[in-house]
Specification:
By secondary structure, the protein is mostly helical. It is built from 12 helices and 2 strands, in the order H-H-H-H-H-H-H-H-E-E-H-H-H-H. Helix 2 packs antiparallel against helix 4, helix 6 packs antiparallel against helix 7 and helix 6 crosses helix 8. The radius of gyration is 28 Å and the shape is elongated. About 3% of the residues have low confidence.
Length: 230
């Protein structure tokens, strides 16, 4: 692989979750093919990452056709890395579709490979990928966890924070519909067990507390739900 081709490949990898550098447009089969033709460990160990993103996002990729497009010397290299991806996907939620696609492909092309790969992973053995290339199974898994599993966890945390922020905003907007600014301040003071002045206590008991009791009435809530179609 010459330097220009290598740079183009590295730019493509970000699109498929293996962000060594910035992305450039490509397609899944071209990216995977160029990775497989390289004998560089850091590119080959990224193939399970890229393959996961391709299958999870349902990019167009016929696994059998793709293998047949490769030189004979690289076909088993791809099958081994596809089998590793099959097992690594156990770490990924909602990956049944991707695992099913890989399972069907591997059982058709080399039925005994999944068991062989599983034994090597369990034993922590290296994988010989031909061309003088050998990849450590633990390093392969670490790369996968760093680029796939950690990213999923981060995405879930970001979504949770976003949902919490949206929920808080909706809550504050609803309070504003029901209470004036002064009343809202007293509500939060009471909630936080802050000291209220005599005037504030009287106002709270006379005006705010009866409204809260009305809002907590089960029949009132049912009426609101029925009228809003909830």
């Amino acid at each position: 692989m010459d330097n220009l081709e290598k740079q183009l490949l590295l730019r493509d990898l970000d699109r498929y979750g293996y962000s060594l550098v910035q992305p450039e447009s490509s397609n899944a089969s071209e990216t995977l093919s160029r990775m497989l033709r390289s004998d560089e460990g850091r590119l080959l160990e990224g193939i399970p990452v890229v393959l996961t993103n391709v299958l999870m996002n349902k990019h167009k990729l016929d696994l059998e056709d793709f293998e047949e497009s490769l030189p004979n010397a690289l076909q088993r290299r791809f099958r081994i890395l596809a089998a590793l991806t099959y097992f690594f996907l156990l770490l990924v939620p909602d990956s049944d579709y991707a695992r099913t696609q890989l399972g069907k492909y591997l059982k058709k092309r080399e039925p005994a490979l999944l068991e062989q790969v599983q034994q090597k992973v369990d034993a922590g053995q290296a994988f010989n990928l031909a061309g003088g290339v050998s990849l450590d199974s633990q390093r392969l898994q670490n790369t996968y966890e760093n680029y796939v599993v950690s990213q999923l966890i981060q995405s879930e945390e970001n979504l949770s924070k976003k949902l919490d922020s949206q929920r808080q905003m909706t809550f504050l907007e609803s309070l504003a519909e029901l209470f004036t600014e002064r009343q809202r301040l007293l509500l939060f003071k009471q909630l936080n067990k802050e000291q209220l002045s005599k005037t504030e206590r009287e106002y709270y008991s006379r005006t705010i507390k009866p409204r809260l009791k009305a809002l907590s009435n089960k029949d009132v809530r049912s009426l609101a739900a029925a009228l809003l179609g909830l």
